[in-house]
Amino acid sequence: MTSPIPTVRWAPSPTGRIHLGNARPALLNWFFARRHGGRYVLRMDDTDVARSTRESADGIERDLAWLGITPDLLVRQSERLELYDVARDRLIASGRLYPCYETEEELDRKRARARLLNKPPIYDRAALNLTAEDRARFEAEGRKPHWRFKLDGRPVHFKDLIKGPQTVNTASMSDPVLVREDGTYLYTLCSVVDDIDLGITHVIRGEDHVSNTGTQIEIFEALGAEAPVFGHHNLLTDADGQGFSKRLGSQSISDFRDEGYEPMAVAIMASLTGTSLPIEAYETLDEIANRLDFSMISHGAARFDPAELDSLNARLLHVLPYEGASARLSALGLEGEAMWLLLRENLRKFHEIAEWSRLVTGPIEPVIADEDRDFLALAKALLPPEPWDETTWSQWTEAIKAATGRKGKALFLPLRLALTGRHDGPELKSLLPLAGRKACLDRLP
Ligand code: GLU
Description:
It is elongated and about 110 Å long. The protein has three domains: 1-101 and 145-319, Rossmann fold, CATH 3.40.50.620; 325-356, no CATH class; 370-443, Arc Repressor Mutant, subunit A, CATH 1.10.10. Helices cover 45% and strands 11% of the residues. It is built from 20 helices and twelve strands. The strands form five sheets. The protein has a three-stranded parallel sheet, covered by helices on one side. A three-stranded antiparallel sheet has the order 4-5-8. Strands 6-7 form a two-stranded antiparallel ribbon. It is an alpha/beta fold. The structure holds glutamic acid. Residues 11-13, 45, 187, 191, 205, 209 line the site of glutamic acid.
């Protein structure tokens, strides 16, 4: 038998904008698929109709595309209900799914009682002992059942792709509810049914799902399927060690986009924080996919550092080739490879190029101190004739030096302030031929 194509999925719940913590599994799954020549499924976990919206789902698709990920397939759980019906019936027929009639209040009371007796608040399976008459009575009262999966209650072992051998003891868990009173399905079941149906070979997700995996492995087996390989990655936290969460209103991926961050900077930080692969200015996601072995994902927390994002963003721009910048420059009404190569190393965000480009095209506001006015007027008279090239600056400044006796900072700084209006910036020897003689004449008094 040939082995199946490695197939992964990223399964966000479309209940809001995604944040860095969500982008992490999105990217790690993508790296895995790219590294192994596999397939990537985007699965919208939208069975919670009260909280899921199409708008969020569309936003997630856009954010994913912005990060550079193009799924091979998009599925929505809300469109796959028949599959869950079949699985439900199968589990009922095999006695693994059983109806329960307790209300929330009754369950609360049971849990409170268990706590008083110092017992873990695990569901007592009372519903397993209901007779047909009991059930008929509940139904006659208008109660509708919710359905629980009967766990084996045993140590479930699996070999985690990232964390190594793991054991989850389902004996210490409540039988999970898979079908609500209103007949809608919970994620725990739908996820397994989809993973089987879509041929998912590897489930890569956050370590907050480890105990879920114990339950789901039992459901895979109860449905007669082989469980996929699981890999649980460490979770991204903010600088204070707090988890990212939609509810806490963390910065979303679209906020980063709106603030002018490079998608690669966001992708690199979301995926490589908390790994031993250095955070560097990788040009493409494939470069990371080829380098990142899952054994490099650390077992401790992954602390996101916003200052590192800023510095990485700048580093990416400082090496961005003209081919990568030209379309974006055109969108700002700018062009010119020499201009880009001269100015890129000053950028923290791409849009700042509009401001910097005025050093070449003008207008700029020259900064001229009163005591330098005569000096600059003399310098103006000494400006060499065109054509200009990279040697023009030294010819000119040598001439000024000879005429005025100024040197060092006293010579260069007033020229820089007049020609650029600022203390920092690109090398003047490169700026001069780009700006041209006319612009320089205009900037000198
Ligand atoms: N919708 C689930 C979540 O966002 C998916 C978890 C999984 O990957 O199975 O947590």
